[in-house]
Design a protein that fits this description.
globular; 19 helices; Bact_solute-bd_prot1; single chain; SBP; Extracellular solute-binding protein; 39% helix; five-stranded mixed sheet
C-alpha cells in the first residue's frame, strides 16, 4: 500500500476465560472494574496468526507499538496485528486508495459509518451479519444494545462496520467558562443569549484586548450553538445541515430556518463589538489554546474533556485558574440545550478479499465479551488497575492514552466509560453529571444508498460552500440580513429540498425496517 507505512504489534496466546462485566457508562463517580459479574460466551480459540490492519494514529496520543494494551490483548488472543498507519494521518484517503488499488489489509479502522456503507455496498467489505453465528459474544451484545445495532445497518440492511458503544461520551461537547474570572468580576453565568451578550460586553470592558467568546475551527461548532435555537444540525463538510424537528417529527434544513437567522444576528453583534475574534473563521486548535490560556477568552464551547486539559496545564503557574462547565444559554424560544454529540462512529471493518474472515470475526468477538469489555477499558488488574481505580495517577485522559494505549483507535468496540470518569478531576466529574440534563434529543443519520450518497456529496458540497460563505458575510456585516429571503432562495436553487427529501425517504425506510425487525422479534 503506497499510502501507508508499516508497523507491527505482536499479540500472543489465547484465553477462554470470561467472567466479569463492568457497569454501563454513566456520568457517576468511578465504579469497580470488576463489579457486576455476568457470564457471557467464552472467546473462540484462534490459531496464532497475523492480520494486516489499517489503523489511525491520533496526533494527541500518537500510536505506540509499546503500549500496554497490546500486551494485554496478547494474553487473550492468538493474533499478530501488522499495523499500517496512513501517511499524514489521512485515514479516509488511505482507505480509499487501498480499496481502489485492490491491496486491502485484512482489517481497517474507520472514523465514519458513511465510509463503511459506501465501500460495503461496493462489495469491498464483509457483511458482518453473515457471521453472527460465529460470534456468540457479539450476538449477545446485539440483543443488549438493539438501538446501537440498528443504527449501524446500511440502507441495504447489511452491516459493514462493527458497532461501538460506551466511548461516545468522550465526544460530548459543552459550554465552559473561566469560573475564577467570573468570580473576580462578580459575574453570573448567562441564562439566555441576551444575558450572554451583556456578560461578554462586561468581560470585554475589563479586558479590552480579549475576545470573550472564542471557539476554534470556524463554523464547525455552530451545530452546538444552534441547539438553543432549536435548529441544531451538522455544519461539517461531510454531512448536510438536516435535523429532525422534535416537535413535528419531520426532517428540516437548518440554514434556511428563521431561528438560524436569529442566531446569526447575535453573532453579527458579537463580531461588530469585538466579542469574538475578527479572524474567527481561521482560528485553529493551537491559536484557540493560546487565546484561552492567556486571559484573552473566558467563554468557549468544545469537548468536555478540555476542562481538565486547561486546568491541569495552567494551574501550575496560576493556581486560581478554573475552567468549568457552563449550562447552555437559552435561545429566544427558551430552549436551554446542547447538541447531542456523545456518539462515535468509529469501528472495525473487514476486507471482503481477506482469506481469514472466519478467524477475524472470532478475534473481534472477544472485544464484545465481558472480559474484553473490562480489559480494553481498565487494563490489567495489578498492573494498571487495582479494584476500582487506576494504580498510576494520570493527569487526564490524554495522559492515560499516551501511557497505556487504553481507549485509543483500534483497541476497543465496547467500552466502560467509568474508566475515563475515574481519571477526571472533581470539576470534570461534575460536568459529566450536569451535562446530560441539557442534551438535545438523540438522533441518528439515516443510512443512504450509493445513489443518494452521490447526490448528498455533489449537491451537499455546493450547498455547504454557499452556506459557509454567506454565514460569514452575515456575521461580518458584508451581507445585510435584509437579503435573508434571497439567501434562502439561493439555497433552494442549489438543491436543499432534494437533500431534505433524501433524508425523509431514508428515515421512513429505516422506521419501516425497524417495525419489521420488531415484529420478527416478537414472533
Amino acid at each position: 500500500m503506497s499510502a501507508v507505512m508499516g508497523a507491527s504489534v505482536v499479540l500472543g496466546a489465547c484465553s477462554n476465560n470470561n467472567n466479569e462485566a463492568s457497569p454501563s457508562p454513566s456520568a457517576s463517580a468511578s465504579t469497580s472494574a470488576s463489579a457486576g459479574a455476568s457470564a457471557s460466551a467464552a472467546p473462540a480459540e484462534l490459531t496464532p496468526q497475523t492480520f494486516t490492519f489499517l489503523n489511525y494514529s491520533n496526533p494527541s496520543w500518537p500510536y505506540d507499538a509499546n503500549w500496554k494494551i497490546w500486551s494485554y490483548i496478547k494474553e487473550k488472543t492468538g493474533v499478530t496485528l501488522d499495523i499500517q498507519l496512513p501517511a499524514g494521518n489521512l485515514l479516509e484517503d488511505a482507505i480509499s486508495l487501498a480499496i481502489a488499488g485492490g491491496d486491502m489489509p485484512d482489517i481497517m479502522w474507520t472514523q465514519e459509518k458513511r465510509l463503511a456503507d459506501k465501500f460495503g455496498q461496493q462489495g469491498a467489505l464483509v457483511n458482518i451479519l453473515d457471521y453472527v453465528d460465529d460470534m456468540p459474544n457479539f450476538k449477545a451484545w446485539m440483543a443488549k444494545y438493539p438501538a446501537e445495532t440498528q443504527n449501524m445497518l446500511s440502507s441495504d440492511g447489511k452491516m459493514y462496520e462493527f458497532p461501538n458503544q460506551g466511548l461516545g461520551e468522550s465526544n460530548r461537547r459543552t459550554w465552559m467558562y473561566r469560573e475564577d474570572v467570573f468570580k473576580k468580576l462578580n459575574l453570573s453565568t448567562p441564562k439566555t443569549w441576551d444575558e450572554l451578550y451583556e456578560t461578554l460586553k462586561k468581560l470585554k470592558a475589563e479586558y479590552p484586548e480579549s475576545y470573550p467568546l472564542t471557539v476554534r475551527n470556524g463554523l464547525r461548532y455552530f451545530e452546538d450553538f444552534a441547539a438553543g435555537f432549536g435548529v441544531s444540525a451538522p455544519v461539517d463538510a461531510q454531512r448536510a445541515s438536516a435535523y429532525l424537528d422534535g416537535a413535528t417529527g419531520e426532517w428540516k434544513y437548518a440554514p434556511v430556518q428563521p431561528a438560524y437567522k436569529d442566531m446569526l444576528v447575535y453573532f453579527n453583534k458579537f463580531y461588530k463589538e469585538g466579542l469574538i475574534p475578527k479572524d474567527f473563521l481561521t482560528i485553529d486548535t493551537k491559536m484557540w489554546q493560546d487565546i484561552v490560556s492567556t486571559n484573552r477568552a473566558f467563554v468557549t464551547l468544545d469537548y468536555i474533556g478540555r476542562i481538565d486539559f486547561y486546568n491541569s496545564a495552567l494551574r501550575k503557574d496560576n493556581p486560581d485558574f478554573s475552567m468549568n462547565f457552563m449550562a447552555p444559554p437559552a435561545g429566544p424560544s427558551g430552549l436551554q440545550k446542547n447538541a447531542f454529540t456523545a456518539v462515535t462512529e468509529e469501528g472495525f471493518m473487514i476486507s471482503s478479499k481477506s482469506k481469514k474472515i472466519k478467524d477475524i470475526v472470532k478475534f473481534i468477538d472477544f472485544f464484545y465479551s465481558d472480559e474484553g469489555h473490562e480489559l480494553v477499558s481498565w487494563g490489567k488488574e495489578g498492573d494498571t488497575v487495582s479494584g476500582d481505580s487506576f494504580i498510576e495517577k494520570y493527569t487526564d485522559i490524554s495522559d492515560l492514552r499516551k501511557k497505556t494505549g487504553l481507549s485509543t483507535d483500534g483497541t476497543y468496540t465496547w467500552f466502560d466509560f467509568n474508566a475515563h470518569i475515574s481519571v477526571s478531576s472533581p470539576e470534570l466529574k461534575s460536568a459529566y453529571e450536569q451535562a446530560p440534563q441539557f442534551d438535545n434529543a438523540k438522533t441518528s443519520t439515516p443510512p443512504f444508498t450509493p445513489e443518494e450518497q452521490q447526490v448528498l456529496s455533489t449537491k451537499g458540497d455546493s450547498l455547504n460552500s454557499h452556506r459557509d460563505e454567506n454565514f460569514a458575510k452575515f456575521i461580518m456585516g458584508t451581507r445585510s440580513f435584509d437579503t435573508w429571503d434571497k439567501f434562502v432562495e439561493e439555497q433552494k436553487k442549489l438543491g436543499y429540498e432534494e437533500i431534505l427529501e433524501i433524508y425523509k425517504k431514508s428515515g421512513r425506510a429505516r422506521e419501516s425496517g425497524r417495525e419489521v425487525s420488531n415484529k420478527r422479534n416478537k414472533q
